[in-house]
Automatic annotation (TrEMBL):
PROSITE patterns: NUDIX, NUDIX_BOX. This is DNA mismatch repair protein MutT. GO terms for molecular function: 8-oxo-7,8-dihydrodeoxyguanosine triphosphate pyrophosphatase activity. Keywords: Hydrolase. The lineage of its organism: Bacteria, Candidatus Kaiseribacteriota. It comes from Candidatus Kaiserbacteria bacterium RIFCSPHIGHO2_02_FULL_49_16.
């Protein structure tokens, strides 16, 4: 059997009028926690294509000014062992109202002011916020 290796994920801070978008996750990994829109990098995709596609598939929003912020090494050991290298991006809202287009994976989307976050946060999202980097100011 082939050895399992980490996969690549993306998380995006979508900025609109000083707020950012988060969704309440459903499912085994981080179910019930609030996280950024995002998902797996698919075979042959550029980072920008992945960001644009994931946001559109999950929320129906269009974004612009996609910028790489940082990478995280996310090892989940709580029962399900999964390992992601997550690339974090910022992007500006361009058009649309967030719709819950994948209701099996997300309970709802909401805009949040920086510092006024919902709880509980998805662990990788919490870890990023604790770095002190503010995606609204970069
Ligand atoms: P699926 O088809 O794989 O179910 O959906 P997906 O949209 O591609 O997967 P996802 O679960 O939303 O994201 C892929 C992984 O990326 C996720 O399982 C864990 C990792 N990840 C982080 N941080 C973040 C984040 O802030 N948001 C999201 N959506 N995923 C993140 O490590
Ligand atoms: Mg996703």
């Amino acid at each position: 059997m082939e050895k399992e290796r980490p996969t690549v994920g993306t998380g995006i801070f979508i900025r609109k009028n000083g707020k950012i978008l988060m969704g309440k996750r459903k499912g085994t990994l981080g179910g019930g926690t609030w996280a950024l829109p995002g998902g797996h990098l698919e075979m042959g995709e550029t980072f920008e294509e992945c960001v644009t596609r994931e946001i559109f598939e999950e929320t129906g929003l269009e974004v612009q000014n996609i910028k790489f912020i940082t990478a995280q090494n996310n090892i989940f050991d709580d029962g399900i062992s999964r390992h992601f290298v997550t690339l974090l991006f910022s992007a500006d809202w361009k058009s649309g109202e967030p719709k819950n287009l994948e209701p099996d994976k997300c309970e709802r989307w909401e805009w949040f002011t920086w510092g006024d976050f919902p709880e509980p946060l998805f662990i990788p999202t919490k870890n990023f916020i604790e770095t002190g980097i503010n995606p609204l100011e970069i």
